[in-house]
Amino acid sequence: MGRQPCCDKLGVKKGPWTAEEDKKLINFILTNGQCCWRAVPKLAGLRRCGKSCRLRWTNYLRPDLKRGLLSDAEEQLVIDLHARLGNRWSKIAARLPGRTDNEIKNHWNTHIKKKLIKMGIDPITHEPLNKSDQSPNTQIITPNQSSSSSNNNNNSDISTAESLNQTQSSSPETANSFPAMSSENVTNNSPPPPTTENSSSVNDNQSNDPSLIEGINIDNALMSYLWDDTDVTPLELPYTYNCDQPCLSSNNVANTWEDNYSWLFDCEDFGIQDFGLDCFNDIEIMNTLDVLEMGNKE
DNA sequence: AAGCGGTTCAACCGCCCAGGC
DNA sequence: CGCCTGGGCGGTTGAACCGCT
After folding, report:
1. C-beta within 7 A of nucleic chain C, residues 24-53 of A
2. What's the structural domain count of chain A?
3. Are A88 and A210 in the same domain?
4. Where is this region: Disordered (predicted)?
5. Terminus-to-terminus CA distance in chain A, angstroms?
């Protein structure tokens, strides 16, 4: 006997979401928060599967999502993370604020995969497609290796930075085609205050030392942070959601907090009723923004 | 302008796992 | 301990879009 379907298939609408449905879902989530997804369609007046509602919200409607193509730095980070984590898109996405696993997965399959193949790199193993190109001393990180290394975050013999360097150096084209995070970018990407002792000093020592970063040279503290599966706090890329501090994205384009919540500001510009959010006044919208911002800071 | 093939990405599917009972 | 449910995950699909002929 098969598993019970997540919802009654009869009368459940499938396919692309309409603006009207989006409005209803946004309305409901902003009013009630994310609760039992199975109950959401009924309560929100949607003829959709609860699962579909959750997906629509998490992958498309969430106000903290960044839209548009991944930046070079994000792309590079995805490649590095994929080399170690494999197709664990949610883990990868957890390190990229404002990006969803679905988005990253799609981007990988449609863009990055092709780029890597074009460069002669196997997108699965991250090894050169032509093995003869690989020098005996060159160590490439494969997903399998990474999973074992992830179990030994704190005492791996080869530093992550070295490994990354080797990965990078094994394929010079990679460095060229994927403008690795500049030292400035990487230092700006320093993770939030680490939970482990010692690491703060590591951070302090390295944050202003460009000599430590060539190409994609990331320090151990950062990488152990990245590999800590228990900590899903997003890596702070140069995007922040601090409304007081307009900041630079990886491509040095001013990227403000407002950019990421532009849809809510559109509500202000055009009137929330235009978005079907009649039930909210401006104060409520701003409260929502506050809550969302707090969530991102945590 | 129309037809065609390739590409993109939102959405779906089915499986898995954790937690509650 | 086993069953049930909710939610998360990765893989896949297909409609929409785009560029070329």
Report:
1. 35-38, 50-51
2. 2
3. yes
4. 125-213
5. 43
DSSP string spanning A165-207?
Answer: HHHHHH-HHHHHHTTPPPHHHHHHTPPSSPSSTTHHHHHHHHH
Q: Is any atom of strand B within 7 angstroms of residue A56's beta carbon?
A: yes
pLDDT in tens, A180-225: 333 333 333 333 333 333 333 333 333 333 333 333 333 444 445 4
pLDDT of residue A84: 80
Please give the nucleotide, over all strands, whose C1' is closest to the CA of residue A68.
B9
Checking if the pLDDT of A47 tops 80, the result is yes
Whether any strand B atom is under 7 angstroms from the Cβ of A113: the reply reads: no
Residue A14, domain member (yes or no): yes
**Domain annotation covers residue A261:** no
Nearest by Cα to A116 from A145, A75, A67, A85? A75
Q: Are residues A121 and A219 in the same domain?
A: yes
Q: Is A68 within 7 A of strand B by CB distance? A: no
Whether residue A238 is contained in a domain is answered as: no
Please identify, among A206, A227, A248, the residue that sits at the C-terminal boundary of a domain: A227
- Provide the whole-model pTM: 0.57
Residue among A178, A175, A162, A179 at smallest CA distance from A223: A162
pLDDT tens-place string over residues A124-163: 778 777 654 444 333 444 444 443 333 333 333 333 333 3
Residues A26-42: what's their mean pLDDT?
A: 82
The domain containing residue A133 runs over which residues? Answer: 72-227
Q: What is the pLDDT of residue A6?
A: 53
CATH of the domain at A3: 1.10.10.60
Residues A131 and A203 in one domain: yes
Answer yes or no: is A129 within a domain. Answer: yes
Q: Measured in whole angstroms, how far is the alpha carbon of residue A8 from the centre of its chain?
A: 33
